[in-house]
Amino acid sequence: MATESKANQNARARRVPQQNVRNFCIVAHIDHGKSTLADRLLEVCGNVEEAQEQMLDTMDLERERGITIKSSAVRLYYEADDGELYQLNLIDTPGHVDFSYEVSRSLQACEGAVVLVDVSQGVEAQTVANVYLALDAELEIVPVVNKVDLPNIDPEMALAEMEDAFGFHRDEIILTSGKTGEGVHELLEAIVRRIPPPDEDAEAPLRAMIFDSEFDVHQGVIAYVRVFEGRIRPGEEIVMMSSGKRFEVSRTGVFSPAMVDVEELRAGDVGYVTAGIKGVTESRVGDTISSADRPAAEPLPGYREAQPMVFCGLYPVDNVDYEALKDALDRLSLNDAALSYDRETSAALGFGFRCGFLGLLHMEIVQERLEREYDLELVATAPSVVYRILLTDGQIVEVDNPAALPELDLIEAIEEPVVEATIMCPQKYVGQVIKVSDDRRGAYVRQEYLWGDRVALHYRLPLAEIVVDYFDALKSATRGYATLDYEHAGYVTEDLVKVEMLINGDPVDALAIICHRDFAESRGRMIARRLKEVIPRQLFEVRIQASIGSRIVASTRVAPLRRNVTEKCYGGDVTRKRKLLERQKEGKRRMKAIGNVEVPQEAFMSILRLGDED
Length: 614
Fold this sequence. Notes:
Elements: H1 6-13, E1 21-28, H2 34-44, H3 60-65, E2 72-79, E3 85-92, H4 100-107, E4 112-118, H5 125-136, E5 140-146, H6 155-166, E6 174-175, H7 184-194, E7 207-216, E8 220-229, E9 231-232, E10 237-240, E11 246-248, E12 251-255, E13 259-261, E14 265-266, E15 270-274, E16 288-291, E17 310-316, H8 322-335, E18 340-346, E19 350-357, H9 360-373, E20 378-380, E21 387-391, E22 396-399, E23 411-426, H10 430-439, E24 443-449, E25 454-462, H11 463-477, E26 483-494, E27 496-503, E28 506-507, E29 513-516, H12 517-534, E30 542-548, E31 551-558, H13 574-594, H14 601-605
Parallel strand pairs: 1-3, 1-4, 4-5, 5-6
Antiparallel strand pairs: 2-3, 7-8, 7-16, 8-15, 9-14, 10-11, 10-16, 12-13, 12-15, 17-19, 17-20, 18-19, 21-22, 21-23, 23-25, 23-26, 24-25, 27-28, 27-29, 27-30, 30-31
Helix pairs in contact: 10-11
């Protein structure tokens, strides 16, 4: 981690009045340059002598993928043109639709938002979604067009798009380059002039919101807080207002971007608090911290709870690691409030957890973090969504695991979740987007012509289809130009059935899927073909079947390995060879009766790639 520069240390020594504090975040579509612009702000404000790339993206996964996964907070000091010293609390946010929950939490810790648009890409789906989130949070918006250093670009197009889409006046929009630093000074001036200071009372009883947290083996929970009222100092006793548990504060500090201790955090500040909190359940994102001596009358409103949209089973390869996986999920959920999990048992995979995620990328990131940060070997089942089942006796049950679907004669109707999707693309790809969406049971809603040749298509789509391969097919059909944003839009009744996969006559619960009856047979055949490719050959025949209820809709086999038991027979009576072959056949029959088929990880994930053969 970079060390704080001398200039910034000197600035920190001077106390900044509350009217000179600015809390803001940077929001944008993925890959529009948020992290690079944040690097330049760190450099210009003297937090580091020389910025490296993606300084606020501290996870290896963020650096490898070039995306922001976790929100990051950092304190900057800026001396404005009027000679005043300002304290700027910056929160860098993710851009992918799966992490919009991170964005919504960060916005509640701010008074303003810098909305970033790539000059070559223009306004994208997540740009629109994030602007509406900022407006709902009543933030002051500073519009910015980034990457103006790119060759052969025309900023006028991006300026016109921002004007048409959001009504910004061209004089309000700032042109910057996170790479070269062009326009960064003008952006900082706009932040201190346009974004209001926090209007909060430092003498009131303490109320601080936990907007993120992480676990350290030596210090326990490190809570990232925004102080809304009062002050918080080391040595004071605090209380968690949701649980009533008390702790003594050991450290208070800020990110600069390294962790730097400060004497106190007061109203309007963003920083971190440690208080020897060892239990990961004792400090939850959205909880309010107050003073034990003078507690606040009521907690802050907190956050709406994240609603998982995609579920999958996570199982340790070795059952001995079950407790280690539980401990890892406990710690990871502290750092990722959108992750949910419950114990689950599978006949095929043993003991594990049914985990809920905001989307496929979120699922992929969590699995990689568990494997890298906690040194676990995991098997993940194919993702599924939550179905609502109306039973014949009038009960309504929710099922997130296809294996748990009740028997067909007990089901009155099955409802599946649908989303309102907005797909933005150049006009020439509209036909391809319509075809891909119609193939995934999408219902066309409307079409809008935006600016230039950009079109926004609105579709109502089953969430289960998006989980399988919709986004990949969309990107492929539009050569990467389409962008997607979606939000949950309730449930609709559909003719859905469970497709079970049988291996040597035994159902493998982890391979079951729920899909529309019209596609059930073709999906079953595809999965059977995939399994034949990935299941290794055994010494006995492996028969793979797909069934809907009691009806087999697909069947294939993996031929057994065969040893040449007659290789030592040279001529002579043919009956001896036949005896040896019959004995071998009988041995294989007995082996098959007691043999277990090892199903590799690729088999579970092959269900995701069904669209490859469409």
